[in-house]
Amino acid sequence: MMMLHIDIEKKLGNFSLQVKTDIAGERTGIFGESGSGKSTLVHLISGLIEPDKGEIMLDGEYLFSSRKKINMAAERRRIAIVFQQAMLFPHMDVKANLMYGYKRCRPENRLIKAEALVDLLQLQPLLGRGVENLSGGEKQRVALGRAVLANPRLLLMDEPLSALDDALRFQIIPYLRSVGEKFGIPYLFISHSLTEMQLMTDHILEIKNGRSLDGTTPEQLARKRMAQSPNGYLNLLRLSSPRHEHGLLAYQWGKNSLLVSAGEPAEESLFELSSREIILFKKHPEAISARNLLECTVTEMFESDSRIGIVLSVNGEKLVAEIVRSASEELNITPGSTLFAAIKASSFRVLA
Ligand code: ADP
Ligand code: MG
């Protein structure tokens, strides 16, 4: 398992970064508002800038130590970065861009081969092309390929999706995940999007005003932020095998069927559903306009400011709804309660 120990300080103009943390795991997120210091941290880990003091250790090896006067050169750290802007070499074609890091990596470290990666990222049709006329998403796939082919010990992805539109962002996420899974490269995924965190990471380091907070998980963070966030808690649902039904699409969601009005039918699609779009009933309502009425069991409840999050099991599938405290008291909702959840077909937003 990848182990990264960070205990550093860095001043840049009026901004000061002070991060002390231990990261263990293959899929870690660095989450924080714009300007909180995420990119600065990425630059410090990769060796693009030098801390004022402290130490950085990767898998037991010092990358930096002010006490021991160690500052390993960036190219020797074997840490690759994918940036928000792909930053490909404009004078090289796609293939030359891809092979750039591979050629510079020591032969004994060349475990990931170009053929396997080109397959995985579906880059074959692009290989002979120049990089100027690639689309934004294609550029990002090439940049990812170049980073992975450098056979790094650690991959840093600094908001790799932020410059892309929504549809493209969610098409690229499976590629980003698969390089970690198929090639076993641990990564730090940096973003200010909680949805991206939920899809890409298991653990999160949160940065606020240049300071690191206690470690958390995407689930804990989503719960904590439910009340303040304009869309509440965003449920991510993978729905499959749609059939046309009365002008809507009937998808399978585990053992359940859901009627949805958005999206083009595809074998599997990813949807988001806000906790605020779910209406809970204590008894079965006789006649309602919402197209989905699901019988469910309360498995857990949590607080987020004045709101109560209700974690529901719908035939084994998880859903989080949100109500105000007075409603939870009036309906006498407790773990174990049976409820009916009503959801309009138009409440589902398709992501990919
Ligand atoms: P994030 O990636 O989380 O958006 P950054 O790490 O890019 O944040 O920046 C954190 C803060 O540091 C910002 O306020 C930014 O203006 C400041 N900053 C970054 N680089 C420099 C620099 N070279 N000189 C002065 N201030 C800087
Ligand atoms: Mg940044």
What this model shows, in words?
This protein has 352 residues and is of the alpha+beta class. The protein folds into 2 domains: 3-216, P-loop containing nucleotide triphosphate hydrolases (Rossmann fold); 234-350, RNA polymerase II/Efflux pump adaptor protein, barrel-sandwich hybrid domain (OB fold (Dihydrolipoamide Acetyltransferase, E2P)), CATH 2.40.50.100. The protein contains 8 helices and 21 strands. Helix 2 packs parallel to helix 4 and helix 4 (136-149) runs parallel beside helix 5. The radius of gyration is 23 Å and the shape is globular. The model has no long low-confidence stretch (mean pLDDT 94). The chain binds adenosine-5'-diphosphate and magnesium ion. The site of adenosine-5'-diphosphate has 11 residues, from helix 1. Magnesium ion (MG) is lined by residues 38-39, 158-159.
Notable traits:
OB fold (Dihydrolipoamide Acetyltransferase, E2P); 22% helix; 37% strand; 352 residues; six-stranded mixed beta sheet; globular; Rossmann fold; binds magnesium ion; alpha+beta
